[in-house]
Fold:
Amino acid sequence: MRLDNFNSYINKVDNKMKTSSQSLEREIKRFFLKRKRRSGFLVNATTQSIEEVSSRISQLIQNPNPYQLILLLRSMLNGTTWVGHSYVRLLASLLDRSSFSTNPEYDKKTKTILKHVIENKRLSYKEATNVEIFKAIFNDLEFAHHSPEYKSKLEVPEINCTIVLISGVFNEIFSTPAFERGVKHLQEKTGVKYICPKAHGTKSTEFNSKSIKEQLFKYIKQNPDEKLWIVSFSKGGVDSLHFLSQEKEFAEKYIIGLSTIASPILGSEHTNHRILKAINKIHNFSNNKVYKFVDNKVDFLFKDFQKSLSNEFQARWFKRNYTKLPKNLFYTALALEAQWYESHIWMILTKVFFSSESINDGIVDAENALYPDYFKGRNLGIIKGHHLIGTRSSFYSQEALLEAHVIYLKYMKLL
Structure:
């Protein structure tokens, strides 16, 4: 009996040692996978930044002028920030000893949704809403993005269209369009084509919608057999809506849908803020010679830009013009939310100066980034993220976000 007890004790110790060994092996594997991913970010940031700065230097030498110098300085600043950010994150991953789950914990409904999407079996709206389906897809892909050991069973399908990536307010600040890193990932994974029409972040919707028209008309003339899927971020979504309402015939022939991310579809309350109202009082001197001289040279207070984004203007415009939007396109809208401490430093400042009681991402109130009830668009809900998650230096899972759009749209038979 004593011998049996002794053998039992030895077996227990042996099992514990095996379990501990397996646990240690998993932790070591996670550590190296995390380091590999962070190292990849750093290598990518360094390589692209060097290439971009070298290209800017060549352009400045060939055509020396103040504008080329500004572009070079911008590339150097953005590149340094990107590399520095990536290096800090790599160091943080090396020092981080926190453990994480290797498998997500989902409730019964989420598991059911994922099973149906994986097996391509339809769910009725009573069984799951658009918001629930999209969030289930995104959450699973995001978990896989942040947890190297977990492999999602969701597969990103190939799509027969060209993505048109249209950015917003910060176009002139950053070197690449918002979410281009995520779209490049889709291209590498599925071979999908994409283009990035130029839009001016501080120009009016009227100006940008005409610019989008010229560029897309030219592209289709050169590629008449292609179909376009517009993916717009921030003010780019407003510019895209104005373009679609004005070019209905073209859109119905060549465009399959519009997906907006953090776009002030119904405008922004920030333009009514007391700070901007105080600054805009300078317009009371519009008859002054000095004001006229400066205003003819440069729109220093961005009057048209403010008007385009104002809640008063854009909400009215949408209600008057939504019936003019092409009927055979799909329309999806996604909003973002972030607490001040979860935001980028710039977003923290906007939350301080332009505080809002509504859920927002630091720039756009979530309720204004979704379609109103009277319009038959597909709202995909509100997910965590500040307004600058689309920058190339962001560690946000842009890849998962865009993959989720593709999988959702394909599952709903819209792509």
Q: What stands out?
A: Confidence is low (pLDDT under 50) at residues 271-286, 290-301. The chain is about 55% helix and 10% strand.
